[in-house]
Amino acid sequence: MAVLSVDSTRSKANVFEEVGKYLQAEGFRIAAQDFERPWGGFFVIDESQIREFQRKFFPEITLSEEQFVQKLSPKFLVVAPEARLSWQYHHRRAELWNLLAGKSSISRSENDQEGPVVEMEQGKVVSLRQGERHRLIGTDSWGVVAEIWMHTDSAYPSDESDIVRLQDDYSRT
């Protein structure tokens, strides 16, 4: 089994290389990647490997056959030290997050006002409901978070256009 190790002394290029090698060593095919996000970036895993992805990174979560048939967009989010994703929510999806390496925090709320910042625990799944406001936050280290999207409308699955940004450090809309 490969080991994923990230810390604040590593460069962005080095961290992304390490995460890419880890995914490949674990047998996952990278369908897409984006290292240009101001907060870090992500790796999208081949959708045909969702069962393996769920077993490896979300073993305590049970997905139905109906859910496995839907697009679940398995990915790794890689958040830089002291960086923040936007304060956001989604109309057409819930999300599952699992901190796998490094450190990250999360803020969440039922309304537009940001909730308290809480440190994520490695191996403890965070379940975000459809419409729940949330933000992934980098702390003093790189953080690597496995993610699965739980689409709430199979006829109109969520995509990147389903991000409602309430606040963004990088002036994105």
TrEMBL record:
- Give the Pfam families listed for this entry: MannoseP_isomer
Record's superkingdom? Bacteria
For the biological process aspect of GO, one term held by this record is: polysaccharide metabolic process
Q: Which residues form the Mannose-6-phosphate isomerase type II C-terminal domain?
A: 75-168
* Molecular function via GO: isomerase activity; nucleotidyltransferase activity
- Is Cell inner membrane included in the keywords of this UniProt record? no
Stated name of the protein? Mannose-6-phosphate isomerase type 2
Please provide the record's keywords in A-Z order.
Isomerase
Query: What organism, scientifically named, is this protein from?
Result: Algoriphagus aquaeductus
The UniProt entry, under InterPro entries, shows: Man6P_isomerase-2_C (IPR001538), RmlC-like_jellyroll (IPR014710), RmlC_Cupin_sf (IPR011051)
